[in-house]
Design a protein that fits this description.
The protein is of the alpha/beta class. The chain is built from nine helices and four strands, in the order αβααβααβαβααα. Helix 6 links the parallel strand 3 and strand 4.
Amino acid sequence: MVPMVSTADQLTPVRAAVEAAAANLGTPVPPIGAMVETVSAVREIDAVCQASDFISIGSNDLTSEVLDLDRVDPRARTELAAHPRVLALIGRVVEAAVAAGLPPLTVCGDAGSHPTTLPLLLGAGVRSVSVAVARIDETRWRLRRLDTGQCRAVFTEALRQGGAGDVAELVEERIEVAMP
């Protein structure tokens, strides 16, 4: 997976190097993927999808760039991935990956295990998230109790909200997944 991709052209030399290495070793060429974590990659997402075998979204970096926050800024919090501008970009990436016939994409970063953002990701069409080991059981528990249709409706409504706080309130009102 190639991190911090901005354009499809950045994947070309990586693919060439991987293909050459695979040929030298006499092994099959492994899939080449792009980590979409920049706004410029989202702008070029159709071309990036055409140049990739799979896509992953880096929610922490994408959120930080969209909201103009440094990743180490104390105001940068996981739940900010629920901001409508970030959600719209995530939705666009999912749509492009599906249209390109790519395997279901993964969201990397803390958004995949957060109680506010997890149902929104599911509503956007995300079907795979990477989470910290300590959050696997809780995330699995939540996923089993979420309804994808309801999550889709909330995601669509979230895109019309004013900010991450408004979206968090919407999720809290509409998605009931109490912890055991």
